[in-house]
Amino acid sequence: MPELPEVEITRRHLEPVVVGARVGEVAVRRARALRLQPRAEDFAARLQGRRILALTRQGKYLLGDLGGGLTWLTHLGMSGRMSLAGRGEPEVPHTAVVVSLETGPQVRFVDPRTFGHTAVLTADELAAAGPARLGPDALDALPRSPDLAARLAGRRAPIKPLLLDQRLLAGLGNIYADEVLHRARLRPDRSAGSLCREEVAALRRAVRPVLEASLRKGGTSLADLAYLLPDGRAGGYLERLAVYGRAGEACRRCGAAVERMVLRGRSAYFCPECQR
Questions:
Q1: Residue 276: pLDDT band by 50, 70, 90 thresholds?
Q2: Residue 226 to residues 38, 79, 118, 173: CA-CA distances in angstroms?
Q3: 3 is catalytic
Q4: Over the stretch 29-42, which tens digit does the pLDDT of each residue have?
Q5: Upstream peptide bond of 230 is cis (omega within 30 degrees of 0)
Q6: Helix (H, G, I), strand (E, B) or coil at 66
Q7: CA 161 to chain centre
Q8: Which of 2, 105, 161, 188 is catalytic?
Q9: Domain-wise residue ranges, the chain
Q10: In this predicted structure, which of 13-17, 77-81, 157-161 has the lowest mean pLDDT?
Q11: Catalytic option among 25, 266, 272, 273
Q12: How many Cβ atoms sit within 10 Å of the Cβ of residue 11?
């Protein structure tokens, strides 16, 4: 958390504000946020004075094109978010980086649990960074069923942990992997290689509707409100979740009690009746 829908919603909110804007002052409040910058001092030096030409997303990464082969990369980690604030507006706790636009608001990277990071990378540095290791994007480049089946063939690992592997599909995390499997009627502990052709097709068909439904609601803000939209509002998909975080509650499809299991150290929520 945040996962693909939350990062994409963040991108959509930031895009009309930052694209075309020139970066002014850059302030780093927490050095840990730059831990993947090859030289920490390059972050502000490469960012200041640059115009943001485009803002895209790859999996859970935000990518700002600065021209000249430079990319402003941000990963929100487990609790990070981007906020827009006016100059002089008090900074909230855990503000890690503040990027002021020459004409416009400040873009602030807030990260309570400090697992997120940001950097400005050259093309060569970006080629060695996290985005280069990602599989196809779960929303924008979802593989065809035969291609997905080939990726799963022979895999003994449970399907839920595999969906969390960003090399298989980029963007899914704990929340949406559970929701996708529920929609596809697949148990999270099924061996990935055991899925038949029809089950792989059902899995693929489930991905986009789940992600798009969350996007329409602004993503999922859990009780801790770690994820908020850049304008400070909470995402509204929490009340639509079918199984995630709902152990003991009624399945929205059949009414059976949702159960929780642990797979490779991660929780998995599922309906024992719908997902056999």
A1: confident
A2: 28, 5, 18, 15
A3: yes
A4: 999 999 999 999 99
A5: no
A6: strand
A7: 16
A8: 2
A9: 4-133, 145-270
A10: 77-81
A11: 266
A12: 19
Q: Of 235, 239, 231, nearest to 218 (Cα)?
A: 235
Q: How far is CA 49 from CA 100, 130, 211, in A?
A: 10, 26, 36
Number of neighbours of residue 101 by Cβ within 10 angstroms: 20
Query: Which pLDDT does position 68 carry in this prediction?
Result: 97
Catalytic residue check, 89:
no
Q: Indicate which residue of 57, 60, 81, 160 is catalytic.
A: 60
Whole-number Å distance between alpha carbons of 192 and 165: 13
Distance of alpha carbon 212 from alpha carbon 45, whole angstroms: 38
pLDDT at 145 over 80: yes
Q: CA 237, CA 220: separation in Å to the nearest integer?
A: 5
Length of the chain: 276
pLDDT digits (tens, 9 = 90+) for 219-234: 999 877 778 888 888 8
Cβ partners under 8 Å of residue 247, min gap 6: 258, 259, 260, 269
Question: For strand 23-28 and strand 54-58, is the pairing parallel, antiparallel, or unpaired?
Answer: unpaired
The single residue of 3, 6, 8, 125 carrying the catalytic annotation is 3
CATH 3.20.190.10 fits 4-133, yes or no: yes
145-270 domain in CATH 3.30.450.70? Answer: no
* CA 203 to chain CA centroid, nearest Å: 19
Q: What is the mean pLDDT of residues 183-192?
A: 98
Q: What is the predicted pLDDT for the residue at 222?
A: 85
What contacts 173, CB < 8 A, 6 or more positions away?
1, 3, 4, 60, 164
Helix axes 174-184, 197-216, angle to 10 degrees: 130
Residue 60 is a catalytic residue:
yes
